[in-house]
Amino acid sequence: MLKQPLILITNDDGLNAQGISVLTKCMQNLGQVVVVAPNSARSGSACSITPIVPVTLKLESKEENLLAYSCSGTPVDCVKLAFEKIVPRLPNLVVSGINHGDNASISLHYSGTIGAVLEGCMKGVPSIGYSLRTRKQECDFRPYLHTIKSIASYVLKNGLPQDVCLNVNFPEVPALKGISVCRMARGIWQSEWKDTDVPGTYKLTGSFTNMEPDVEGTDYWALDHDMAAVTPLSLDMTYYSSIETLKTLQK
Predict the structure, then answer these.
(1) Residue 2: what pLDDT?
(2) What is the pLDDT of residue 251?
């Protein structure tokens, strides 16, 4: 008998977030599920790890084909611990989310959701991050379930190229108009610090400006046109076009 696919799930909103609960139920239709998620929100943790303070794991629930653990560390810690201490074999898929808030354009660089996806990809496992453009803590995820499952099913069946993972963002709409496979839009965060009542202390905030608001083929264009934005990401950040030019430094 063939083994069910083994799917590892994490997020950066914490184990009790609505998004990861929805994602877990969706993935249970596709295989055996292990959830390892932070015990509280770790938004903005990117690829950070916990190298000094000991990290704890706690088994929170055990059901048929489902194990769920909380972790005191970051999303990347969750993936590292899951691979080394929990999963009985190499997972077939790592999924992260569903994040409350989009991770499109340059925002993905700060995202703990995507940090976990990159870690899974570094481990050689096909990995997907799912995010919803919303400011709500309680959301209606039903419009996205079919697409979430179909993308995961595609990756389970076909895999992804080596060192490539997927960043999937959804608009908050009653019904999706389709899927757009696209690149990151160019953007910038500005006015990122707000004064507090305590002199010399500041609160991180900011406003995002899409520098390509009308450019088709970008993730924000897709979101603005009620489509799921699917962006392939590469671990290799080398800008190959500059290698020959910069070889003048070797002289």
Answers:
(1) 64
(2) 74
pLDDT at residue number 24: 98
Select from 168, 206, 166, 164 the least CA-distant residue to 187. Answer: 206
Q: 71 phi and psi, to 5 degrees?
A: -135, 140
97 in the Ramachandran plot: left (φ > 0), alpha (ψ -120 to 50) or beta?
left
As given in the structure block, the two tokens for residue 2 are 């063939």
Cβ neighbours around 192 below 10 Å, total: 11
pLDDT the model gives residue 182: 97
Residue 26 has a CB neighbour count (10 Å cut-off) of: 22
Neighbours of 28 (CB within 10 A): 16
pTM for the full predicted model: 0.95
Q: What CA–CA distance (Å, rounded) separates 41 from 100? A: 11
Can you list the residues of the chain whose pLDDT is less than 50? 1
38 close to 75: Cβ distance less than 8 angstroms: yes
